[in-house]
Amino acid sequence: MTVLPGARLLFSLDPAVAHLNHGALGGVPIPVQRAQQRLRDEMEANPVRFFADGLPERIAHTRTHLARFVGADPAGTALVSNVTTAVTVVLRSLGVRRDDEIVLTDHGYGAVALAVERACRHVGAVARTVRIPLDATGDQTVEAIVATLRPNTRLVIVDQIASPTARLFPVARIAAALRGSGAALLVDGAHVPGMVPVDVGAIGADFWLGNLHKWAYAPRGTALFVVAPQWRERIEPLVVSWLEPTGFPANLEFQGTWDYTPWLAAPAGLHALRSLGIDEVRAHNAGLAAYGQRVVGAALGLDPADLPDPGGDLSMRVVPLPAGVATTRDEAHALRHRISVELATEVSVNEWPPGGLMRLSAQVYNRAEEYERLAERLPGLLGTR
Q1: 7-20+277-382 homologous superfamily
Q2: What is the dihedral of CA 84, 228, 124, 151, to 10 degrees?
Q3: Which residues of 62-191 form beta strands (DSSP E)?
Q4: Can you tell me the distance from the alpha carbon of 107 to that of 263, in angstroms, rounded to the nearest whole number?
Q5: Taking a C-beta distance cutoff of 8 angstroms, is the pair 101, 152 a contact?
Q6: pLDDT mean over 151-175
Q7: pTM (2 decimals)?
Q8: How far apart are CA 127 and CA 120, in angstroms?
């Protein structure tokens, strides 16, 4: 596994805890924290000047820099606080009506599903979930999604890297398969920026969303919302601001007295990532995540063949838990909390029949012994030893 000397010193994380859940909320490098604090100091020194003199232009400059990092058109990209916010904007802007259908997969993020359910409930639309097996091939995944389409399907939502299952989806192939069907495609790329190379423009989705505060070292509350040309004039902000007449993307970005310092400091996160070496960081994280999956899986009695393949070199992997463990959302949250308190280890646990899935992340501050220590102690906590 690649070793990046000194990388741990870039973070202010509690050294008494094994932080194996970077995919949840990220971790902001100290230089990026300081860049954001300088922006906060500037804002508080003269709030009127900060907000009134050139703030939209500063946001637009930042947006251009970040959009190019993911291969997106800056003119069709807006900064938002997170992916779920952008999903809500899409649902509002689409004008979903009674008996329309929105299709999701069972690998999707829970808050996105809740947003879809609420939107459908308000107008009498229908949300349908496609079941995709953990071991489905790319062809099987595309076929399963296409098979659900109906004449009244308005929107399909697919993760590029699924949060609960750490699985890479063939989103460009899905986009091609949906073209001409009348259904728009929204790609949830929450985990993509920084983790894997991406060319958003080449995917061909109607909407693409990605967080930069997970794997691109930006402060929390920084995400990109990319909209295809045919949809841009239809995007409606959830709240009207003084920039409403200017249209997308500025009318979505400028929301009065928001704290814009996470966005303005985000380029410092990309600088930190590039300083470490993007390829080196990705190789380190993917190799360590795969190692963690193997050692924890072996401790639970799983053969390598039993471990789900993410379909790419990802910085997250999942380990299936014993049958009957963490089969509901409440049980999964309770187990995550026990592991946090009793093992001083942060992981993600998600319900997934017949047992839950433990998601392990890897970042440059992690070491192999952290996964080995979890592997040694987890069976006792689960009562499997």
Answers
A1: Aspartate Aminotransferase, domain 1 (3.90.1150.10)
A2: -140
A3: 77-80, 101-105, 126-130, 153-159, 184-188
A4: 28
A5: yes
A6: 98
A7: 0.96
A8: 7
